[in-house]
Structures are given as structure tokens and as C-alpha cells.
Design a protein that fits this description.
alpha+beta, 11 strands
């Protein structure tokens, strides 16, 4: 059945993605057959190519701030400013822009908090350590109070950094930044002291492109699965309402007989 086959492909693609990311963040953008010739070194953040640097995040940060707080009474469907919350961000860092609530905020007062394309975001409370990159939206957008907004310099591709933070290697390290007995939180100062791998820019871009390629493959498979589920529900509904009758269906002969 096509639906089951598609689900298997999606699961396999996600496992390949996890394995690929571990390979890329250990050996760089080379094939597995070339990994043995890559010179690597064991560092405090794990094994990485010798040509990569290890820097504190603050070395590549122009600006870092928590999202602003404001009263719940300012939320309004007619508001002109959207608020990006931790709940609008999936575990892999993808943003669901459709779920962002709007608020009626004085733009002058909050102008310094408006997100720009390429801003790097990290969830600091609740589901700590999920990294995302803001792209663009048709309204002004601010980060919610439980997000840390980081404006990076040109030495680090924010999409590369997002993938590192959300990889198994990076996530395990990021979670060690969270502190608190009841509600875990990541402070801005702890995040700034977090050490990151910094490959040459062309390798950052190549790694980002490779991961984007497999994400596009997974997205296509998900779309196919949703299409199959919609077709199945439509077919089932037709049977239940009598619009489709079993006797009206024609099935292909797969027996190979005459």
C-alpha cells in the first residue's frame, strides 16, 4: 500500500538526515569514502576537521537580546505586529508563520525588536535550545519573551548554525546550558559563551545546501503522504455515503493470468 511505503521512506529519510548531519559536523562536506583522508582533531566540542575553528558564539555576535514582554491585552487579530513564540517553532527549527498571534504594539517603541531576515533565534525556556532562523513575513515580527535573538556577523551562516544546534551532537551540548530547579532556562550570557564549530564559509554553505537537499526530499514525501491520506479519506467517505459502490470498482489483474 502506497501510504505505508511513503511512511517508510519518510522514516528512512529522517534517519539518513540524522546520520548525514553527524558525518558533516565531524568530517565536513565530503563523501563517506573520503572521510578517512580528512585530517580531524579532538576538541572540547568533539571531533572536527583540523581546518575548522572553535569559537565562543559571542565572537561572531553583533547583537543579542531577549524578546520583549507586553501585556496580554495588546494581542489582537487586527494588530500589525506578529509575535513569534516558542510554540511556533518545530523541533527541527522550522517556523510555522501561520500560527503567530498578532498584537497592537506601538511600532516606535518596539522598532528595535523587529526581526530581520537571517536573525538567529534560540528558545531559552520550556523546550530549551531549539535554534531557528527568521526569513521574512508580510507583517512586522518580534521574537517572544522566551526566545533569544542573535544577530550574527558574516563569519557564520545562521542556517549552518541552526543545523548544528539542532543536530544530535549540538543539541546535547546546548541542553547543558539550561539551568533551574523547576523551569529550565538558558541565559544570554551562557549562550554567548557556548562554543561552536566555525568552518570556512564555503564549507558552511556546502553543508547547509546538503541538508537543505535532504529536507526538500523529506518535504516532498510528506506532501505525497498527505495526498494519499486525502485520497483515502475521500474514497472512504464515498463508500460510507453510497456515492461509490464496491461493484462499480474495477481492479487491475495482477495475477498475470489470461
Amino acid at each position: 500500500w502506497a501510504k505505508e511505503a511513503t511512511e517508510k521512506v519518510i522514516a528512512a529519510t529522517r534517519e539518513v538526515r540524522r546520520s548525514l548531519m553527524e558525518h558533516l559536523f565531524t568530517y565536513g562536506p565530503v563523501g563517506r569514502d573520503s572521510a578517512s583522508v580528512v585530517s580531524t582533531v579532538e576538541t572540547e566540542i568533539g571531533r572536527i576537521p583540523l581546518a575548522w575553528a572553535v569559537d565562543e558564539l559571542k565572537k561572531h555576535t553583533k547583537h543579542c537580546a531577549f524578546g520583549p514582554r507586553f501585556g496580554a491585552e495588546l494581542y489582537s487579530p487586527q494588530g500589525k505586529v506578529s509575535t513569534l513564540r516558542t510554540t511556533d517553532i518545530y523541533d527541527d527549527g522550522e517556523i510555522n508563520y501561520a500560527t503567530m498571534p498578532r498584537a497592537s504594539l506601538p511600532e516606535g517603541k518596539f522598532a528595535g525588536h523587529f526581526l530581520s531576515s537571517g536573525d538567529f533565534l534560540v528558545t531559552r525556556s520550556g523546550t530549551c535550545g531549539i535554534a531557528s532562523v527568521f526569513e521574512c513575513h508580510h507583517t512586522r515580527v518580534i521574537a517572544g519573551a522566551f526566545l533569544i535573538r542573535v544577530v550574527l556577523d558574516n563569519g557564520v551562516n545562521p542556517h549552518f548554525l541552526r543545523h548544528y544546534f539542532n543536530s544530535r551532537l549540538g543539541r546535547a551540548r546546548v541542553l547543558t546550558l539550561a539551568a533551574g530547579a523547576v523551569q529550565k532556562n538558558i541565559s544570554g550570557s551562557r549562550l554567548m559563551s557556548f562554543k561552536i564549530p566555525v568552518p570556512p564559509s564555503d564549507q558552511q554553505d556546502a553543508i547547509t545546501d546538503l541538508i537543505r537537499g535532504i529536507d526538500d526530499k523529506a518535504a516532498a514525501e510528506v506532501a505525497q503522504l498527505l495526498s494519499l491520506e486525502s485520497l483515502f479519506q475521500s474514497f472512504l467517505g464515498g463508500l460510507m455515503t453510497g456515492k461509490i459502490r464496491i461493484g462499480d470498482l474495477q481492479f487491475a489483474d495482477t495475477t498475470g493470468g489470461a
